[in-house]
């Protein structure tokens, strides 16, 4: 699917603010893909649709999780996590995207998981550092991303885990698995 068509489809599902974020993720993801050896067209498509389900009704998302093979544990954690796996499912069903690598990059863009592919890492990091983001620590992660995808992700994960802990929130296990695998790969 070409960029213009994809953007036109996703625009109808997002607020203006979220659409601007999506454009930022798209541009950042293409640049990161080019630098780190991921497929730029797949990065573009995954970025465009990564937040496709962000504004779906919570009960609708819950119903989708309950009625599909998606991880049921998701229901025990922050609802903010749901739009990623549900989005991957709906992008396949409603938009007709069937590229598994693209769908997995959408599916894991919020939680991460152990053994993330380069494309999945690119989308995760692009979502975190795209130019419209402004929160404590983002500039440092942008700097690190100039030289190392994995080092930037380690910093981003540390920030996110500490941020969630300070808010007394549970951490989804895949987020820890992602973080641990980045640290362990560094040593080996
Ligand atoms: O959809 P976006 O706002 O662009 O960004 P996102 O998909 O990374 O969602 C971020 C939200 O997910 C943020 O409010 C933190 C929340 N969240 C809740 N529990 C977890 C979590 N994020 C991670 N990585 N792990 C969690 O366990
Ligand atoms: Fe998201
Ligand atoms: Fe996003």
From TrEMBL:
Pfam families cross-referenced by the UniProt entry: HD
SMART domains named among the record's database cross-references: HDc
UniProt EC number: 3.6.1.41
Gene3D superfamilies per the UniProt record, alphabetical: Hypothetical protein af1432
Domain of life from the UniProt record: Bacteria
Major enzyme class: hydrolase
Reaction catalysed by this enzyme: P(1),P(4)-bis(5'-adenosyl) tetraphosphate + H2O = 2 ADP + 2 H(+)
InterPro entries: Diverse_Catalytic_Enzymes, HD/PDEase_dom, HD_domain, HDIG_dom, YqeK
Keyword annotations from UniProtKB, A to Z: Hydrolase, Iron, Metal-binding, Nucleotide-binding
Single GO MF descriptor: bis(5'-nucleosyl)-tetraphosphatase (symmetrical) activity
Ranges where the HD domain occurs: 18-132
Membrane-spanning segments: none
Phosphoprotein among keywords: no
Keyword Cell division among UniProt keywords: no
Protein name: bis(5'-nucleosyl)-tetraphosphatase (symmetrical)
Species per Swiss-Prot/TrEMBL record: Bacillus seohaeanensis
Gene name for this UniProt entry: yqeK
């Amino acid at each position: 699917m070409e960029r213009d068509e994809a953007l036109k489809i996703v625009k109808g599902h997002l607020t203006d603010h979220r659409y601007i974020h999506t454009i930022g993720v798209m541009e950042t993801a293409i640049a990161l893909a080019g630098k780190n050896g991921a497929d730029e067209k797949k990065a573009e498509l995954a970025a465009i649709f990564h937040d496709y389900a962000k504004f779906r009704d919570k009960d609708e998302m819950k119903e989708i999780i309950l009625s599909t093979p998606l991880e049921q544990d998701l229901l025990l954690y922050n609802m903010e996590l749901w739009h990623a796996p549900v989005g991957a499912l709906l992008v396949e069903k409603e938009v007709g995207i069937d590229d598994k690598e693209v769908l997995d990059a959408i599916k894991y863009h919020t939680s991460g998981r152990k053994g993330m592919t380069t494309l999945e890492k690119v989308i995760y990091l692009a979502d975190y550092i795209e130019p419209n983001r402004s929160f404590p620590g983002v500039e440092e992660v942008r700097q690190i991303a100039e030289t190392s995808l994995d080092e930037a992700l380690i910093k981003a994960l540390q920030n996110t885990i500490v941020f969630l802990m300070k808010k007394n929130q549970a951490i989804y296990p895949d987020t820890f698995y992602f973080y641990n695998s980045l640290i362990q790969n560094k040593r080996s």
